[in-house]
Each structure stands twice: as structure tokens, then as C-alpha cells.
Amino acid sequence: MNLVIQILTGTLFHIRVAKDTSVADLKKEISNQEKLPENRLILMLDTGHGDSIMLNDDEISLIHNVNIRKQDAVAKMQELSQNSEL
Fold it and tell me: Which superkingdom, per the lineage (predicted)?
């Protein structure tokens, strides 16, 4: 899986990882490539819909983590939609 990473300075770079790569593994790759302290990295996924998802569970794979967060976001949006109709 090819990822495009952007850090706060605006620098863009690419990282290639396996589909079962964990968030912790990705942090390690970013740390090694960009010489950044691994324990200070906070990863956010841009959903492309004007919001982002924090990837904060280091032990879960990237794919699993993203799918869970998307399901949570959809459920929350449905709940908000139902409440606004009342």
C-alpha cells in the first residue's frame, strides 16, 4: 500500500507499507525516514470529505483502524440526522 504523508511543515513524502501494517509500524517508518521522534507523532487520516480521522490505536492495522473510524463516523452522522428531524 502506497501512502502519501504530509507533515506540519508541509513536506510531502511517500511510504510503502503492507496492508496489515499497524499504526505503530507506520509511525516507526515515518520516524526512520524523516528523523522525527516516534513518540511525538500523531497520525490523522484525511477522509477527503472535509474531515479527518485520528489513527490512535498503535496495535491495530491501518486498514482495520480506518474502517472502524469510518463506521463510527457514519453511525454518528445517522444519529445526528435523526435528532435533527425531531
Answer: Eukaryota
Read off the C-alpha cell for 27.
509511525
Helices then strands, counting H and E runs in the chain, come out as 2, 4
Q: E strands within the chain?
A: 2-6, 12-16, 43-46, 52-55
**Predicted TM-score (pTM) of this structure:** 0.66
Cell of 23: 499504526
Fold of 2-85: Ubiquitin-like (UB roll) (3.10.20)
> pLDDT, tens digit, for every residue of 51-79?
777 777 676 777 665 555 555 554 555 55
